[in-house]
Amino acid sequence: MEDRNIRRSVTTRTKMPRTTFLPFAVPHITQAEIDEVVDTLHSGWLTTGAKTKRFEHEFAGAVNAPYAVAVNSATAALHLALDALGIGEGDEVIVPVYTFTATAEVVLYCRARPIFVDVDPVTCNLDPLQLERRITPRTRAIFVVHIAGLPAEIDMILAIARAHALPVIEDAAHAFPATYRGKMVGSISDMTAFSFYATKTLSTGEGGMLTTANPEYAQRASMMSLHGISRDAWKRYRAGASWYYEVLQAGYKYNMTDIAASLGLHQLARSQWLLQRRQAIARRYTEAFSQWAQLETPPDPAHVGHAWHLYMLRLCLERLTITRDVFIQALTEARIGASVHFIPLHLHPFYRDTYHLAPGDFPAALHMYQRVISLPLYPGMTDEDVDDVIFAIEQIVTTHKK
Ligand SMILES: Cc1ncc(COP(=O)(O)O)c(C=O)c1O
């Protein structure tokens, strides 16, 4: 859908250098979110309660999932998913190497071993062909990450997983709302984890959600998210409720608060508008950057609905006289915030040393990392902000092209 607020050409106006710094990411908070938080503060009930329950129900509806369990981070949701599958010592879990550390660290929480797999050189998502080669008799689950909000080739991955009788967990920290062949991400595989961290497409400050169609996984995750006790604490303090509860397992403290859910309810209600703003900005970037041989724009294939959490611009370094790091420095000097997603896990000291990994072990991930820049992409950006980013990038390319 076209957003008329986004101008089509930067060259139609005379550019002045920015006088203020454009942050890389800013959450979009309206009066509705603020009022809901204030209402919660006045209500006498701050932690997991009726608003969290309502948020779970509405989020489940939004992604067509029978069950949703609200937690305090995507990391918690990923951990609870592995717990629900009974992953433990000696088990292997497939993890795409191009991701944030959370996807792999939860495998270590379970004393299991992450088995890293390289990514597709174009999409930067898990490469299904490489995945099949890394499955062993010890493999117990497959993690799929939808990098930047671009859904991975989940049908192919599910076909491989089913052939080996393996469950699939989607790390959809970047992918709300996103679709794959008409299906909502969150309704497709065995379990899906979402993040509501401050910079994400739906933000509760910190927060997360686990969705599933399996009632046993949902029940286990719900129980383990609150100390492994038999009933939600909030029910204990309602009029007429019993003081009695039982601890059934040694669980975790992963529950979402009603303060966070207050933000989530309104972010969810506005999620289509928020998506349209990000889509319009991404479209504007792609239109401008696809005219430059020095730049490669991120893919946006027709069979998926991209959530556009990140705009990961790829530099064609062989056509530039500068490195990615110098490019980012030039953007900073132009007062444009930028970032890099991600440093592949095998380059980090912990994973490199623990699993004896070398940079060249995952060539596609390494190549992507060396040339990628995440640009500002958030609904609160003005048309001028978008123009400023494009102008700055075009200036840098013009100055440093081969
Ligand atoms: C791919 C990926 N997975 C998981 C996470 C963890 O999310 P959270 O901060 O909600 O735990 C992040 C956070 O940025 C992420 O980028």
Key descriptive features of the protein:
Spore coat protein; alpha/beta; Aspartate Aminotransferase, domain 2; 3-stranded antiparallel sheet; binds pyridoxal-5'-phosphate; 402 residues; disordered N terminus; virion; 2 domains; PyrdxlP-dep_Trfase; globular; 38% helix; PyrdxlP-dep_Trfase_small; PyrdxlP-dep_Trfase_major; 7-stranded mixed sheet; Aspartate Aminotransferase, domain 1
**Tally of discrete structural domains:** 2
Low-confidence stretches: 1-13
Structural class: alpha/beta
Number of helices: 14
Distance between the termini: 37 Å
Helix content: 25-40%
Superfamily (CATH H level) name of the largest domain? Type I PLP-dependent aspartate aminotransferase-like (Major domain)
Number of strands: 13
The run of helices and strands is HHEHEHEHEHEEEEEHHHHEEEHHHEH
Query: Numbering strands along the chain, what is their spatial order in the largest sheet?
Result: 1-9-8-5-4-2-3
Structural features, described:
The chain is an alpha/beta fold. It has two domains: 31-269, Aspartate Aminotransferase, domain 2 (3-Layer(aba) Sandwich); 271-400, Aspartate Aminotransferase, domain 1. It is built from 14 helices and 13 strands. The strands form three sheets. The protein has a seven-stranded mixed β-sheet with strand order 1-9-8-5-4-2-3, with helices on both faces. Strands 7-6-11 form a three-stranded antiparallel β-sheet, with no helix packed on it. Helix 1 (31-43) packs antiparallel against helix 9. The protein is globular and about 70 Å long. Residues 73-75, 99-100, 102-103, 145, 171, 173-174, 195, 197, 208 line the site of pyridoxal-5'-phosphate. The site of pyridoxal-5'-phosphate has 14 residues, from helix 3 and helix 4.
